[in-house]
Amino acid sequence: MSGSHNSAAPPASPDDPRMAGAVVRRRRRFSLIWLIPIVCLSVAVYLVFETLLNRGPLITITFKTGNGVVPQQTQVTHKAVPLGMVEDMRLSDDLQRVLIHVRMNRQGEKILTNHARFWVVRPRLSTGNISGLETLVSGAYIEVDPGAPGGEEELNFTGLEEPPGVRSDEPGRTYVLHAGRLGSLGPGAPVFYRDVSVGEVLGYDLGNGLGPVTINIFVRDPYDKFVHEDTHFWNASGISASLGPQGVHLELESLQAILSGGIAFETPHTHTSAPISPADRLFTLYNDKGEADDAGYTQLVPFVSYFTSSVSGLGRGSAVNVFGIQVGAVTDVKLLLDSKTNSMVARVSYDLQPQRVFSSGTINSLSNPQAVTQSLVRQGMRAVLESSNFITGQKDVSLQYVPNAPEASVTQEGDTLVMPSQGGGLDNITTSLSDIATKLDRIPFDEIGKNLNLTLRSISQTVSGPDVKNALQKLSETLTDIQHLVRNADHGLTPVLQRLPKMSQDLQQTLAHANAALGEGGYGSNSDFARGIARVLDQVNDAARSIRMLADFLDRHPEALVRGRTGGSEK
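The structure corresponding to this sequence follows.
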């Protein structure tokens, strides 16, 4: 009985009345197809979350032109890392500028300060450099320089039209130069130290246009340590040519300096121990290296000289020489009117620079420049203008000893010593030639020529007159008669002349026999008769010698019987 209760009941069938009204529930299985929308939704949520997480602020950059910028393509980068994307661009309300809206990312949000600078990188070709060639393939992009750390948050920027010369992360120092003129210098021009490019020109400012030009330059590290407080900068643009004792001298820094200009600097050897210059220090930019070298001589003795001759070719920077060695430079040349004499004089100011030639010990011994100069003037030293280049007409001031110079003394004009001057060089030659020309001009050449023409005309008339012709004709006839006479005399005297030598010989023999006879007669050599006879014989000997000479002369010059003995006849 109890066992019947524990036996299992048979399963109910669907037709069983007990199943009436019961709800049958079936178990459903999960379909894999639902994974696709779930994954897509997850990715979308992740992307939205990632985008919102990396989404930075929207900034506005203003440029003069939007050349090369394409919305949704042009990126904003720094060191080739994307920091944003251009969303759109439009013109400003006044249609003068282009407003470019850039969506920055979270990483780029850090640099959005008032120190940041933006510019468009595109191909640029200039005399100074070539940049942006990679954009020919990749397209233009906007580069940003974060600037110095710190700064205030900023969302509106004014873009640069040209790339900056110096980036904020480039080590080095900037300096300011003042120049009288800019020349060919411009942004990007190189800065040289010993012919090595160590920096570049950042820009310039004309100010009010009346003062000096302000030039900003940058010198990279480690070359900025060569800039000291006494460093000299000069304009190294183009080619410098000079004609000196060694011939033509050409000087240039580099081809880039010829094309775009350049600046060079150097520190004098005597000032290399000076401290390194701090950033943004003001320096003077000299026109050339010679002017910069002159600025390195700190010990100057000012002089002035007055000239009454031409100072053409003499100007600021001209050399002052002693024995051909430069000892100074001209600082100014002016024309003055002397109110006392109402005459014009040229006032030439110059500085003597003892450091050029003398040692420090010698310079220290020159404690009284006026006394030393006065001693030199007593010895004849004067300031003389000399031509240093006959081709260009350039002149220099030469301090030289002038022979027989008139007495002079050294005076002072304030702190400036007045050196007596003396004419010299080409001016003296020119003056002498001018005096000679003046004297020659006073000679009445025209009157002399007229008188000479009259004289020659009178002589011509006289010579061509009948009197002269008759006289010449009679002279010709007379000469003809003389020739006939000489010819006849020659023929008539020939026999006589031929007998003269025979007569002289016979006379000589007779005298010899007479001498012998008288010597043998015994009258004595000391008697009066002997002495008389001796004198007669001497006279006869002289006569015989004269006859021989006459015979010999007439034999060679028979015409002498008619013409007489002349100075041109042989003796």
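The longest helix spans residues 466-520.
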